[in-house]
Prior knowledge:
Bound molecules: 2-phosphoglycolic acid
Amino acid sequence: MSHADDRSFRHGGMLVRVAADSRSVCLRAAELIEEAIRRALAARGRAVLGLATGSTPEVVYRRLVERHEAGALSFRDVTTYNLDEYYPISPLDPRSYRSYMHRHLFGRVDIAPHRAHLLDGTVPEPFAAEHAAQFERWIAADGGLDLQLLGIGRNGHIGFNEPSEVSIAEALRLPTRLVELHPVTRADAARDFGSEESVIPRALTMGVATILAARSIVILATGAHKAEVVAAALTGPMTAKIPASLLQSVAPKVTWILDEAAARGLSHYRFADR
Ligand code: PGA
């Protein structure tokens, strides 16, 4: 498939691709995932993906399902780990990310159920830290993530690693853990929960360190409401206040895929590449 409409450039060592619209962003992301699966299968006979939820990836999963239905893509030898899950929540709750993944991907492709991992929103709180550490051990035992798919929150979060005041060194070490959601995250989740007050205020999230350890990272952003945070994360200083800016620390393995609206804050895009 050609991407005549894509523009791409590097910023701080990270690859930035700008596609015409949100659908093109998602199709491009699905292609990168498919390529990562093929490469990993050829090299090791298995592929390990880190997956994301939210509104942006829905079309990515739809495309992967289409490829599967066309007989072009199998998940038989694919293992997945999702970024995050609300806490506490039942996997049967339609608002859980387990349920989202089942609806959009797992229930529609040939992935083995025991290879599709999410953090468990039902684990008793005294065991949450051990569960999070175990999740990381499973990823390590599977050989690490070949590709981690990410969205970016309006506040710059990746997974549910929310803005904080910690030092960069500390932020880069953040492990998988139980966290409190940031007010902006709660406001944005209100559409799934009916109101901001009903949003489950805590979550289990893969840590910054866990995410940055992936062999490649693909981060998607679409829409004008993401333009400001995308520009800050890509071109501003690294800071724990904008967790996505921490991707700069592993720049060569990071690909941003943006639509034109989300890229609007990037001077490269406005002036250099047009
Ligand atoms: P969205 O979420 O795709 O629903 O905008 C992105 C995120 O919060 O990571």
